[in-house]
Design a protein that fits this description.
Keywords: ATP-binding, Nucleotide-binding, Transport. It comes from Umezawaea tangerina. With 308 residues, this protein is of the alpha/beta class. It has two domains: 2-210, Rossmann fold; 222-279, 2-Layer Sandwich (Alpha-Beta Plaits). Helices cover 32% and strands 25% of the residues. Strand 11 and strand 12 form a beta hairpin. The longest helix has 16 residues, at 160-175. The structure holds adenosine-5'-triphosphate (ATP). Residues 11, 14, 16, 34, 36-42 line the site of adenosine-5'-triphosphate.
């Protein structure tokens, strides 16, 4: 389990992370979302002891990273691809990592197989494609068989097969009871991978909630209703204080996920209902609405020439 308490990081006058509090719990994939510059990478670096918090703490199993014994056995991270020495083979890169953490050769072979690099294990990593480098980074993260795993933008630049593979891997790691924390800019991918979401903007916590709740709570979620008596249904809903509009195809659209209440109102009033279905906003819509205020630079704010 990863615990973030009152965590802040300042770089000179820039407050990159501003009083964050949240937990990354075992048994689920927690997605980490935020616009560019929101402070995601800084938070992950502080969890991994690569940056020191200005105030507050990031703890893994109750201890800051620097105080963990055999850290690779507690937490594994994919923070940036291509960090391996280009002249070393994949096998030797992993063996070097393993030996510096008192992990045996057998585990090196195991993780190579697990990430599907068997056929290229003896190639220099400098010749690896982006997808192969990502797999190698993941092999390194898994080496100590840790309970907590961090992935910063793991699907960046990967093809659909690679993306699918990483998604399945992360879901499998969570199903084994591990705490999986992953950042990504690909909303459609995050919607398929994460169970829980932590959303930050300008270093501050904006949401810490279940994926389904996050999307349903968005103002653009609605309940679609088709009935032979739309006018009477509209009156019943109006009287109950439920906002309703008529959609493009003539179906009624009531604000929010209200199918239970609407079903009961229809039953009490003897109204026939042909369709009553929740229509959730997409994760992207919900994310854009929540973070609109917190985007560091809107496209329209860029100075002439389009550069910051
Ligand atoms: N080493 C550093 N020195 C100075 N400022 C930094 C440093 N690292 C990050 N920052 C600043 O801190 C803020 C947060 O950056 P960070 O990279 O953590 O955001 P992010 O959410 O990971 O962004 P992105 O989605 O673009 O990767 C930004 O304003 C960034 O410019």
């Amino acid at each position: 389990m990863i615990e973030i308490r009152d965590l802040s990081k300042r770089y000179g006058s820039v407050v990159a992370v501003d009083g964050l509090n949240f937990d990354v719990l075992p048994g689920r994939v927690t997605g980490f979302l935020g616009p560019n510059g929101a402070g995601k990478s800084t938070t992950m670096r502080m969890i991994m002891g690569l940056d020191r918090p200005s105030t507050g703490s990031a703890r893994i199993d109750g201890k800051p990273y620097r105080r963990l014994r055999d850290p690779l056995r507690r937490v594994g991270a994919l923070l940036e691809a291509g960090a391996a020495h280009g002249g070393r083979t994949a096998y030797h890169h992993l063996l070097w990592l393993a030996q510096s953490n008192r992990i045996g050769r057998r585990r090196v072979r195991e993780v190579i197989e697990l990430v599907g690099l068997d056929s290229v294990a003896d190639k220099p990593v400098g010749e690896f494609s982006l997808g192969m480098s990502q797999r190698l980074g993941i092999a390194g993260a898994l080496l100590g068989d840790p309970d907590a795993l961090l992935f910063d933008e793991p699907v960046n630049g990967l093809d659909p097969e690679g993306i699918h593979w990483i998604r399945t891997l992360m879901r499998g790691l969570a199903a084994e009871g591990r705490s999986v924390f992953v950042s990504s800019h690909l909303m459609s991918e995050m919607a398929l991978t994460a169970d829980h979401l932590v959303v930050i903007g300008r270093g501050r916590l904006l949401a810490d909630t279940g994926m389904a709740e996050f999307v349903q709570r968005d103002a653009s979620s609605y309940t679609r209703i088709r009935t032979p008596e739309p006018e009477r249904m509209r009156q019943v809903l109006d009287a109950a204080g439920i906002q309703v509009r008529t959609g493009a195809d003539g179906a009624l659209e009531a604000r929010g996920p209200r199918q239970r209440t609407i079903g009961e109102l229809a039953a009490v009033n003897g109204l026939i209902v042909d369709e009553l279905s929740p229509q959730a906003a997409s994760l992207e819509e919900a994310f854009m609405r929540l973070t609109a205020e917190a985007v560091e630079y809107h496209a329209g704010d860029l100075p002439e020439g389009g550069r910051r």
